[in-house]
Amino acid sequence: MLQEFYSLPLRFEALTHGEKHPKCDLQQSVFQHLHLLLTTSFGGFPADERFGCGIWDRDFDNVTSVHKLRELFKQSLLQSIQEQEKRLSNLRVEVLMKQEEQGDENDRKVKKRIDVTVTGILQLTNERFSYRDRFFVGPLSY
Q: At 97, which CATH number?
């Protein structure tokens, strides 16, 4: 392993007692950091109010057009990733949104699904990087 990173979730008790904490490689570390960034609202991490993304500011927005929401999400994600994940360069973010029915025939719910694809280059190794995530908003679920 070229460089080791702590895997999530962090086990602070193990770290403070000198125990070994599970490690991961660079790519897995970036995956985990992006997932954390995508699922955190601005202000959700008290140590850094700028950590997170703007998706959650419009979690229940049913008025703005899907096209405009998609562009707002894309720009917010791109800006957040550029600021918070310095191990990536040549970033490209794609956001797809669609309505999806969930539940059984007696309890149908329509949820807004967001598919996010982030591509770029891992600066440390100059390797191509691709990350995909999918989640539902209003409220967040996986």
A: 3.10.450.40
